[in-house]
Design a protein that fits this description.
The complex is a heterodimer of chains A (330) and B (445). With 330 residues, chain A is an all-alpha fold. Chain A has 14 helices and 2 strands. In chain A, helix 1 (18-67) crosses helix 2 (77-87) and helix 9 (200-212) packs parallel to helix 12 (255-262). Chain B is an alpha/beta fold. In chain B, the strands form 4 sheets. A 6-stranded mixed sheet of chain B has the order 1-14-13-17-15-16. In chain B, strands 2-8-7-4 form a 4-stranded antiparallel sheet, with no helix packed on it. A 4-stranded parallel sheet of chain B has the order 11-10-9-12, with helices on both faces. The chains are: A mainly alpha (330), B alpha/beta (445).
């Protein structure tokens, strides 16, 4: 008889694994990807391909030649970072900028902290913000949807949030609402914006899939969206002349993409349910503050990165409810 | 009646109850038995026999030493070959009595008939003495001496008796078989424990992957006042004492406390049946139902097995050791212990022998923690396994104690659920051992 294997319990293990979770997130992104290809055509395909390939390649090169550790570029996480980075870039951005963004995402965002599981900030957002600050013009000129065969030469236009931000002061909210796409268009994604952020309904379908597969819990996305709706709702009720309604805020900009995919990133979000709720609420508040009172039309990216920095504190102070803490006598 | 369950955490591993529906079958007598004198939690029992002695089935061969200890009886008739140290399921050598088996002859005074005796004579104290006399311990696996649990400490009051028929471990079906076949005797056993405790109310908790057992036990208790059967949603570790108390009564046993702190005492169905035999039939605990199972096992079975029988004897009875066996587990896959040799003796706490194939036996390579929070979500005690593991890895004993590592019930839900296959519970056990040492030394000062 062969020697028996002896190891401590448990002797059973779930069928779930890191690559399976990563692929699960990718599957959930498919509807949004399809919608983005529908509206931005070849540009979306080029940006996504370059981003994914660059992220995987940079991860491999950095691990192999700089860190000299066994490369983990195929565990799915680099592919996912590449996908998410592409989703938050304009579909007409030159491919070499995408590569720089990928290098910032993987190199600065992930590898400097020690690779998968150790980074403090969401790598895709690090890549996006790096590009946003380095190439502000390219990062804020969004192609008008429907130009399937045009890439960098696509005609550009403003995003709904941009139109609103620019016009306020001179025009009332009611007048500005006439200039942005209607709610149906906002729902399906027929508007200017980053390649993957526009597809509101498709992103929500992705959320449902991830909840069904138990990849994420509802806490972070629901609290972010709820807080934004509540906060903008109050502002709108107080002063409807100067503020857009909550539905407009929910459907525009990077809010859906941020709440569903960026803020829920495992590594950079809190470890307890309570922490997740606080994190979500604060991201929502910061987003609205930046959108309504700040200089930028959109604030989700900064809100998430700022809250990423608070995650260790949230983990320290918000613990799960412990079993049997309260002494009860029957 | 709706299904209940515990509120925090939990997992649902594949149930794999291959041997469900198999009748309890006497395993027969092996050539030799090895009966360890520490089969229970607490002090080792004092050996009363010497090499060369002739013993009869049911004869006392080691007696309780101290309060938290119990009696041990010969499970066979025969000649004592040796009183020496033999390896048990842990792999360590422990004092045991080895007996060469001869023709079965029960000691005088033991009722070996199958007649159902429903009249419970005797006071609570007499019941406790018979349970100590019969060497009854918790058969769910913890093997805590049952007479101790029947002594309610001063200042506490027992209100409920809970009977654990959950059997939440995958693969195991011993308790299930017992409920199906011995329901009437089990109910008398429950009455005995109720009388021993002085409680009026008992609840039998059974997970609803055993609807037949729920039905049989409901029928068996239909005319019994104060005994209720409650179906439970399938969720591991519902058979954990604290989880079961919370599931059935929504009371939380305090950290570091016992169920009696919330007015509850929990016994396993096997223990209730053993109590019936000990009190009504004067028959000590010398045999138990053991599930022998595994995906490659030819005849997965529930064997009525004499204590001290080598596991290898049972494996032969179930069709022999499959060629692809890579791991043998004493117990279930979640909390059972892997053994190095298959000739380890069956003891009072052995609920099953599980044979795993190589693909089931090997652990996946460990990946970095991706902070997915799944371990936090499944911990039934509301702990943070990822954090405890890191602290244990780094030897941070003070933070470990502060983060309540000692609350861990070692159910293994965290390691089970970790997508990175991290050895969470291994490190938490290390942490518990070290923190336990520190706490004891502090007490000693």
């Amino acid at each position: 008889m062969n020697k028996l294997i002896v190891s401590p319990s448990p002797h059973a293990h779930t069928a779930e694994s890191v690559p399976k979770l990563m692929y699960g997130v990718m599957i959930s992104l498919l509807p949004a990807f399809a919608v983005s290809v529908w509206f931005f055509g070849i540009g979306m395909l080029i940006v996504t391909t370059v981003s994914v390939v660059s992220c995987v390649l940079f991860e491999y090169l950095i691990q192999k030649h700089i860190l000299k550790v066994p490369p983990t570029h195929l565990d799915g996480s680099a592919v996912l970072t590449g996908l998410l980075l592409a989703f938050c870039l304009p579909a007409n951005i030159p491919f070499w900028m995408v590569m720089i963004g990928a290098l910032a995402a993987i190199g600065i965002g992930k590898m400097t902290f020690g690779g998968l599981g150790n980074n403090i900030f969401n790598p895709a957002l690090v890549g996006r913000v790096f590009l946003f600050i380095s190439f502000p013009v390219a990062m804020t000129s969004y192609p008008v949807p429907g130009q399937w065969l045009r890439y960098t030469d696509a005609t550009t236009g403003a995003t709904p949030l941009g139109i609103f931000k620019e016009g306020l002061g001179e025009q009332t909210a009611g007048e500005l609402m006439q200039q942005v796409p209607g709610y149906t268009d906002l729902f399906i994604g027929n508007m200017g914006g980053s390649a993957g952020e526009i597809a509101t309904v498709a992103l929500l379908i992705g959320l449902l899939y991830m909840l069904y597969r138990k990849i994420i819990t509802w806490h972070i996305p629901v609290t972010i969206l709820g807080t934004v709706a509540l906060f903008t709702g109050i502002l709108w009720l107080v002063n409807p002349e100067q503020n857009a309604d909550p539905l407009f805020h929910l459907l525009t900009g990077g809010l859906m993409l941020g709440a569903i995919y960026m803020a829920t990133d495992y590594v950079t979000s809190p470890m307890t349910r309570k922490g997740m709720v606080i994190y979500g609420v604060l991201i929502g508040i910061l987003t609205v503050i930046i959108r309504v009172f700040g200089a930028y039309p959109e604030g989700v990216q900064f809100a998430i990165l700022i809250m990423n920095a608070f995650v260790p504190l949230l983990n320290k102070y918000f613990k799960p409810k412990r079993f049997g803490k309260e002494v009860q006598h029957g | 009646m709706g299904l209940l369950t515990f509120s925090r955490g939990g997992v649902h591993p594949p149930e794999n109850k291959i041997s469900a529906g198999k009748k309890i079958e006497p395993a027969g007598l092996p050539e030799q038995v090895v009966i360890p004198v520490t089969q229970h939690l607490g002090a080792p029992s004092k050996v009363l026999v010497n090499k060369g002695d002739e013993v009869m089935t049911g004869q006392l061969i080691a007696e309780a030493e101290g309060f938290v200890s119990t009696n041990i009886h010969s499970s066979v008739t025969g000649k004592v070959l040796k009183v020496d140290k033999f390896p048990d399921a842990s792999g360590y050598k422990k004092m045991a009595v080895q007996i060469q088996v001869e023709e079965d002859q029960w000691e005088a005074g033991i009722d070996t008939s199958d007649d159902l005796l429903t009249n419970i004579d005797g006071t609570a104290e007499e019941i406790r003495n018979k349970i100590l006399g019969g060497g009854i311990v918790g058969l769910g696996g913890a093997t805590f001496p049952s007479h101790v649990k029947l002594m309610t400490p001063k200042g506490k009051k027992a209100e409920y008796l809970l009977i654990n028929g959950v059997e939440c471990e995958p693969y195991l079906t011993a308790d299930h078989a017992l409920m199906m076949e011995k329901s009437a005797r089990l109910v008398v056993g429950i009455r005995i424990l109720m009388k021993g405790l002085g409680v009026e109310k008992a609840i039998i908790g059974i997970e609803n992957n055993k609807p037949d057992a729920i039905e049989v036990m409901t029928n068996a208790t239909a005319s019994e006042d104060g005994i209720q059967v409650q179906g439970l949603k399938v969720k591991y570790p519902q058979g954990g004492e604290k989880q079961l108390v919370q599931a059935l009564l929504n009371r939380e046993v305090p950290s570091g406390g016992l169920p009696i702190d919330v007015g509850v005492v929990v016994f396993n169905v096997g223990t209730a049946y053993a109590s019936y035999l000990a009190v009504q039939k004067n028959r000590p605990l010398i045999e138990r139902v053991v599930t022998v199972t595994g995906k490659s096992v030819a005849n997965p079975s529930n064997f009525l097995t004499r204590i001290g029988t080598p596991a290898s004897f049972l494996i032969e009875k179930a069709g022999g050791l499959p060629d692809d066996t890579a791991k043998v587990i004493n117990g279930g896959p979640m909390m059972g212990k892997a053994v190095a040799k298959i000739d380890i003796p069956i003891v009072k706490g052995s609920s099953g022998i599980l044979l795993l194939r190589e693909n089931e036996a090997l652990r996946n390579p460990v990946q970095p923690c991706i902070r997915c929070t799944k371990c936090v979500g499944v911990c039934p005690m509301g702990l943070e396994p990822y954090l405890l593991m890191t602290q244990a890895e780094k030897g941070m004993w003070e933070p470990l104690e502060r983060d309540h590592v000692m609350d861990c019930i070692e159910c293994g839900s965290c390691s089970y659920t970790c997508p990175s296959s991290r050895p969470l519970l291994d490190y938490i056990r290390l942490g518990k051992a070290e923190v336990g040492k520190i706490m004891r030394s502090r007490k000693a000062v």
